[in-house]
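Q: Got a minute? One more chain.
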Amino acid sequence: MPVLAVTKVGRYYRTTIPREVRKLLNISENDEIEWVFEDNKVIIRKKGG
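A: Always. Here it is, folded:
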């Protein structure tokens, strides 16, 4: 599985969605993101996408 990008977890456990991921998922401000735990992995996806 290829790595698209790497980010750091900052204060208050915040992180930035990398540009490559935002482009692939067509993510804009105010979009909702789903965090899904499946097969011992976390999947991040745009809600409704």
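A: The beta strands are 33-38, 41-46.
Q: Perfect, thanks.
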